[in-house]
Amino acid sequence: MRNTARIAQPTGLLTRRDFIRSAAVAGFGFSLTTPKVHAEPIPPAGPPLHILVLGAGAAGLVAGYELKKAGHRVTILEATLRPGGRVHTVREPFADGLYAEAGAARIPSTHSLTRDYAKQFGLRLAPYKPAGEKSLYYAAGRRVIAHSGQPVDLAPLGLSFTTEELRMGPNGLYDKYIARFSKDIGSIPGDAWPSPSLRKFGNQTIANLMASLGASPAAIQYLCAGYEDDSALDYLRDAYSHEAEELDHIVGGNDLLPRAFANALADQIHYGSPVIRIEQDTHSVRAVTRRAGQNIVVPADRMICTLPFSVLRHIAFAPRLPHGKQKAIDNLPYGSVTRIFLQYNRRFWLDEGCTGFADMLDLPMEVWSPSHDQPGHRGLHLGYLYERIAKKFAAFPKADRTTSFLNLMEKVYPGAKKHFEGGDSFVWNEQPFQRGAYAVYPKGTYDTLAPYVSQPEGRIHFAGEHTSPWPGWIQGALYSGLRAAREVVQA
Ligand SMILES: Cc1cc2nc3c(=O)[nH]c(=O)nc-3n(C[C@H](O)[C@H](O)[C@H](O)COP(=O)(O)OP(=O)(O)OC[C@H]3O[C@@H](n4cnc5c(N)ncnc54)[C@H](O)[C@@H]3O)c2cc1C
Fold this sequence. Notes:
There is one protein chain. The chain has 17 helices and 21 strands. By secondary structure, it is α/β, with parallel strands linked by helices. The chain has a domain at 50-87 and 252-333 and 440-490: FAD/NAD(P)-binding domain (3-Layer(bba) Sandwich), CATH 3.50.50.60. The protein has a seven-stranded mixed beta sheet with strand order 8-7-17-18-19-16-20. A five-stranded parallel beta sheet has the order 10-2-1-14-21, covered by helices on one side. A four-stranded mixed beta sheet has the order 13-12-11-15, with no helix packed on it. Helix 2 (58-69) links the parallel strand 1 and strand 2 (73-77). Bound molecules: flavin-adenine dinucleotide. The site of flavin-adenine dinucleotide (FAD) has 40 residues, from helix 2 and helix 17.
């Protein structure tokens, strides 16, 4: 989940009503139906197989879970000591049981697969953001506080919006430049994604598409949030997920979902087992892993590899993979994200009727307050930093990241320094088993890389968010895990 987070702001730049209204006004022929996919068991087929799953993130866990239920023998190799991968709830070093998400945070109401599994495991969902009376917009030292449901006047922020864009306000900007396309593009079901008719969107950047519609540089900067070079297709597909009626989180932390899967797979998962080499021949497939300083070879009938390509490009295959596949593994770009967390002794933003969230118009970042539905009086700010600013903060010494972010927060929410207790940060580019946040598909890559990404190679099947029609979402990871599991039993 990335970039178009803009519309997930508290008053929602685009409310459900706006969404329907704008569609009617624009007169675009789209369907309000959502691409529904549901958690369906893998049908038992043939004799039980031994299936080796690489990675205990959402994709590997769902594949292992359903294959085990279908009667197969499953072994999961996970490099780290916990399940969940990029679904990672941070509970330390916060006081009073507070928590925040380093990775996946929002579960749209249209993500039926994610919600099905949350329901299966008895997990409770709640809005990731409070409705709130007021929303705060910020740019270059200036703030605008708007009452919910009232027109937002962005003029005081001093950005170079056109007169028409200022008149439209944030909702109108989104309607004009994004929503007119995202509805058609996003509602295409997973199996048909991306359809050939969408090719033109894959071969231009979102910034160019917006510029061709007359968008000002300020509007492009605001809506693209660092992802100007993303293909319009990738961006608009992602945008559709943000347009859902509800954006929820799992009460208690999103990691409760992977942990529930992992509880059901306790005997199948081997933690602390980084895979360093993958081999196959006509009879079997093998992963070589390091455990207690030794190489261990784990053979199986089939393999589901869910490792991000940013990691897989450093792992040797024997025999070598075909050129197209290796090219996709080597070249699929990953977005950069840094998360910064600040803890305060009280939720001082409530004093002026704000939610603690802020819409940053001239910086590729979002500001949230994940403590809004957690008990106690202490508060958290979370900075969701994208691309260039994610890299900039990542390059600072750790202590300077929180200090720099606190300095910014003091301008966004004056009083931050007075109430600040401490902070922490999480850099996705620095995680050895992630090396980036999520796959992005820039201009041209749907034609050149996408056809090879999910293609099986011999006994190796590929899953993970990057191989799915929902890159950057749990839904995509789950969808791909189920797709690969079906491939394995049908092979
Ligand atoms: C900052 C951020 C924000 C996000 N926001 C959202 C959101 O709001 N909503 C949403 O639905 N999704 C969101 N996502 C996306 C979501 O988290 C991912 O799409 C999903 O969790 C990916 O699952 P996966 O199984 O494909 O990969 P991963 O979760 O990365 O799982 C891969 C697993 O493989 C392991 N591994 C890696 N290398 C090796 C190796 N050599 N040997 C063995 N194991 C290895 C890793 O440790 C990991 O556990 C976000 C992600 C990030 C990073």
